[in-house]
Design a protein that fits this description.
The protein has 644 residues and is α/β, with parallel strands linked by helices. Helix content is 29%, strand content 18%. α2 crosses α5 (137-144), α10 (302-312) runs parallel beside α13 and α20 (624-632) crosses α21 (635-642).
């Protein structure tokens, strides 16, 4: 039996564990990336390990999230990251150079390599034939120190693409179709591997759009083969030396098989408030809109911008619509300025924003009250835009641009014939906004610059023999990390200050939670299905840790958040019988005897509800390594003991 493409790369990088499906394996990491909203904490964690220089082939620190500087906090964090990067062997992508995933795809991605990043959309580089995985900052810090990254050997899902996209139907519609079919939970514990004749019709940026939003499936990652299209993109970037051809074996076997005929797809939108609430533009109808935002790591490539410029050329944005456009990188913005695309976009009345994440994370451009906003982004969770009652629809750049002119949601196929959009044979390469680290010999002279907003990693404690604590919060299904630890212009600057940011923990669900949890001293959170979906932000575990949360009991977890809880030393417990969820209320006192022994022995755990005089069963399925992490009180302490 042959191997899938994902299995080939994973097997070549496995350094710990038996390469058997369902087992935990440790893989060697070739590259890492961070962004500034997660990077400051990741580098605080790296420093705590006491390692002088990173031990990866390439580690890059990007500044792209916290670029709104309304106070000293963000600027101080950027200065801190720059100094850490210079001292410890990390490349530093300065503010203005672009969004981490777009820049990494352009300048650092390489087929067959492994990459983990402290951002959930790191799988973008799967469009280049990489195993690229989003992870918590502490996992990235360990990888920078030379440690393996651990995953459960996942199921591999083959998505076979046939046919060719019709005019004005986009790569965004491919991933929206997959989300419509299998939901935001459909990819949990799986890698999505694309095959089929339709692949050859998709450019690398289009492939990257699809793998980027694979994160919304809950998938470990998504991957395309490395072929002549990949080679052409790398040649245009002046990096053809890193190209290798990669594909699955002809007799590879997959756990699931899905066929998508590209020629049958139509323009679609993910309706509020979930990426899998997908309908066709025709189904939704000509809905009046208030705002359009084009950009983000999903749809900010040069190819996207060329299409937008063509649609806007010679027209004017509807007077009732605000249009904002964010090119994904300095390279894209430079080339738009040179080829006239930028002038067309400006001429139509668009508001051109810097090459950064911006509106996607609520960092500006929040829609009006109850406003309908079309966005080419990857998430439309309630309140994520910065407006609690904002109605966000996720669409392709083609739909977004056409609708901005019309003033209502419209099908771009009404535009008529579509010209052929081609990527250039040579991109304008200028890496002057990427600062190289100091030499190892000079590194000791570099001073780490810390501002007053930068605080230390929260104190953790080893796993206790027993636990008795109140349920400080009960929440429902599909709780996102935006619910647990919101983003936005007011909160993101506190990412390096856990005591301060914890005051906003679960504010979307219950503003009283932080004070209540702190007053309890220790507590337990209860939740439903797919708890912790969305961003990789480890702050959604670190803030509860600071507030005294010792365990989270849910029906099921999202992958990255479950690992972040383990890394923080918080027990991830799952109901054996989901109906037990209904027997618990906020304020109930829950008790677990022989906790440490049960966890370490992998036993079913009995939880007593002292308030109700009832009991229920939970499980805590951990590998031997994870048990060691939990026993130490988290990955940082475990790493200090084990990584030499």
């Amino acid at each position: 039996m042959g191997l899938t493409l994902a299995e080939k790369i994973l097997k070549a990088h496995t350094v710990d564990g038996e390469f058997v499906k369902g087992n935990e394996i440790g893989i060697k990491i070739d590259q890492t990336l961070t962004q500034d909203a997660t990077g400051t904490m990741a580098y605080i964690e790296f420093e705590a390990m006491g390692i002088d220089q990173v031990r990866t082939e390439r580690s890059v620190a990007y500044i792209d999230h916290n670029t709104l500087q309304s106070g000293f906090e963000n600027a101080d964090d950027h200065r801190f990251i720059a100094s850490v990067a210079k001292k410890h062997g990390i490349y530093y992508s300065r503010p203005g150079n672009g969004i981490c995933h777009q820049v990494h795809l352009e300048r650092f991605s390489a087929p067959g390599k492994t990459l983990i990043g402290s951002d959930s959309h790191t799988p973008t580089c799967g469009g280049m034939g990489m195993i690229a995985i989003g992870a918590g900052g502490l996992d990235v810090a360990v990888a920078m120190g030379g440690g393996a990254y651990y995953i459960t050997y996942p199921k591999i899902v083959n998505v076979e693409l046939t046919g060719k996209l019709q005019p004005w139907v986009a790569a965004k519609d491919v991933i929206l179709e997959l989300l419509r079919r299998i939901s935001v939970k459909g990819g949990v514990g799986k890698i999505i591997e694309y095959t089929g004749e339709g692949i050859a019709t998709l450019s690398v940026p289009e492939r990257a759009t699809i793998t980027n939003m694979g994160a919304e499936l809950g998938a470990t990652t998504s991957i395309f083969p490395s072929d002549d299209v990949t080679l052409g993109f790398l040649k245009a970037q002046g990096r053809e030396d890193v190209w290798v051809p990669l594909a699955a074996d002809a007799d590879a076997e997959y756990d699931e098989h899905i066929v998508i005929d590209l020629s049958t797809l139509a323009p679609m939108a993910a309706c509020p408030h979930s990426p899998d609430n997908v309908k066709s533009i025709t189904e939704i109808g000509k809905m009046k809109i208030d705002q359009v935002c084009i950009g983000s790591c999903t749809n900010s490539s040069l190819l996207d911008m060329l299409k937008v410029a063509y649609i806007l050329d010679g027209k004017t944005v509807h007077p009732d619509v605000s249009l904002a456009v964010s090119p994904g990188s300095k390279q894209v913005l430079n080339m738009m300025a040179e080829n006239g695309a930028l002038a067309k976009i400006i001429g139509a009345g668009a508001r051109v924003l810097e090459s950064a994440c911006g509106p996607c994370i609520g960092m500006g451009q929040s829609p009006n009250s109850g406003g309908i906003s079309l966005r080419t982004f990857n998430r439309n969770f309630e309140g994520r835009s910065g407006t609690k009652d904002g109605q966000v629809y996720l669409v392709s750049p083609e739909v977004a641009a056409a609708s901005a002119i019309a003033g209502y949601l419209c099908d771009p196929r009404e535009l008529g014939n579509m010209p052929e959009f081609k990527l250039p044979e040579k991109f304008a390469v200028n890496d002057n906004m990427i600062t190289l680290p100091a030499s190892p010999e000079a590194a000791h002279e570099v001073e780490i610059l810390r501002g007053p907003n930068i605080k230390e990693y929260p104190i953790t404690t080893p796993l206790a023999d027993s636990l008795t604590a109140d349920c400080s919060l009960k929440v429902g299904d599909n709780i996102t990390t935006d619910h647990i630890m919101p983003a936005g212009a007011k909160i993101l600057p506190l990412r390096s200050n856990i005591p301060a940011i914890s005051k906003h923990c679960f504010a979307v669900c219950d503003e009283a939670f932080p004070d209540r949890a702190l007053s309890l001293g220790k507590s337990i959170i209860v939740g439903g299905v797919n708890y912790g979906q969305g961003s990789s932000r480890e702050h959604a575990a670190l803030a509860p840790l600071y507030l005294g949360v010792k365990a989270v009991i849910v029906k099921s977890f999202a992958r990255i958040h479950r690992q972040n809880l383990i890394n923080a030393g918080i027990l991830p417990l799952e109901f054996v019988d989901a109906s037990a969820y209904d027997t618990i209320e906020q304020g109930d006192t829950l008790s677990i005897e022989c906790l440490k022994d049960s966890v370490m022995n992998g036993e079913i755990i009995t939880v007593k509800n002292i308030t109700k005089n009832t009991e229920f069963k939970v499980k805590c399925e951990l590998s031997d390594r994870m048990k060691g992490v939990i026993a130490c009180g988290g990955l940082l302490e475990y790493t200090k003991e084990n990584l030499k």
